């Protein structure tokens, strides 16, 4: 599992949103991290596919990405990814609860809410409008307190109007989510259970809250609406065994990396799936620097599922982090054979080749991974090093520029973009990519003046 730094809006199609952030120097560029792991993302893909299909979306084009944040939240900022905090995944107790969250966020995409909000943000030319746009962005990413602070000075009537519109969209997304779940054969009771968690987190009484000053309907209202839907259409089918397995696997790996090894060893004893139990124990031993027991655990998981590329990927990570380069290379090589198009596995294989002193051989799998996943900042770091070691300094500078751009460090990105353009053939595809980064940097500089 890797922790990748990125800005909240580090989605290349959302560049105008980034420009809005650069426009206000008093607003710091937030940089939470993504938890990138091929196994967890595969599990989330399995869980999300039925509801995304029911929403009319292509499961191969909408990624489910995990944010390194322990709070209970999920959000979307474009039509290509749904962001879910790891704290939410660990907090929900059943797969249909997580699927309800994904269905709700998918509804924002399918119902055109993102497009409408995007157009509203584009028209935010006045100071009041800009403040409101930034508040909306912060709220979408879970920054409620930041949103309130940014919105100071925005007229109350304008804010009420915008949030009333958002509130209606949230209620609409709930209704759509319940319909998607029903069509997918998943119990919409998960929606009720999720809203019950939100209701339990409310700090103010309903009498003290102003529903129009919130970006979501009150949780009590949402619980009632969800219960009404379940009463009308029924609870749906029983839990599917496949969903339970992938849910346990995602939560098991997340908890093993984010909670104490002692906690993992204690809780994993109750894990019903042998391979998941062994995987969790392997991670706990690895974090306790017990390589022998860690390898015994992951080898046991592999013996249970010998054609599972993600267990070989984890074995490669364990070996890499213990500086067993050649053994790690063999494990990653087997993972690539089983999943030749998985970007994160390809990146790990390239990283192992680089560590084993084979930078030239590392570049093809890295470049293949980059073509499939532009959000992996760790991959860009490794590519920069591999390019530098093979004497391709222009491409090394470009990879560094793009990595800094994704991290929200636009000033550093601009410096390296200039270096790349000076060394790359003018007009070439890499040169134009560097020019794109430089243009974004120059625009940010103009807004600072």
Q: Helices and strands in order, then pairings?
A:
Blueprint: E1 2-5, H1 15-23, E2 33-36, H2 38-54, E3 63-67, E4 74-78, E5 81-85, H3 86-91, H4 95-110, H5 113-122, H6 127-140, H7 144-150, H8 156-183, H9 189-201, H10 219-233, H11 241-258, H12 261-268, H13 274-287, H14 291-304, H15 309-320, H16 325-338, H17 343-355, H18 359-372, H19 377-389, H20 393-407, H21 410-423, H22 429-448
Parallel strand pairs: 3-5
Antiparallel strand pairs: 1-2, 2-3, 4-5
Helix pairs in contact: 1-22, 2-4, 2-8, 2-11, 4-8, 4-9, 6-7, 8-10, 9-10, 11-12, 11-13, 12-13, 13-14, 14-15, 15-16, 15-17, 16-17, 17-18, 18-19, 19-20, 20-21, 20-22, 21-22
In brief, what are we looking at here?
68% of the residues lie in helices and 5% in strands. The chain contains 22 helices and five strands.
Any overview of this molecule?
With 449 residues, the protein is mainly α. Strand 4 and strand 5 (81-85) form a beta hairpin. Helices cover 68% and strands 5% of the residues. The chain has helices at 15-23, 38-54, 86-91, 95-110, 113-122, 127-140, 144-150, 156-183, 189-201, 219-233, 241-258, 261-268, 274-287, 291-304, 309-320, 325-338, 343-355, 359-372, 377-389, 393-407, 410-423, 429-448; strands at 2-5, 33-36, 63-67, 74-78, 81-85. It is globular and about 65 Å long.
Radius of gyration from the alpha-carbon trace, in angstroms: 23 Å
**Helical percentage:** 55-70%
Number of helices: 22
Percentage of residues in DSSP E strands = 5-15%
Widest sheet, order of strands:
1-2-3-5-4
Average of per-residue pLDDT values = 81
Q: Let me know the largest β-sheet.
A: 5 strands, mixed
Helix/strand structural class: mainly alpha
* Structural shape: globular
Distance between the termini: 41 Å
Poorly predicted runs are 4-31, 121-155, 203-215
Per DSSP E runs of 2 or more residues, the count of β-strands stands at: 5
Helices and strands, in order, run as: EHEHEEEHHHHHHHHHHHHHHHHHHHH
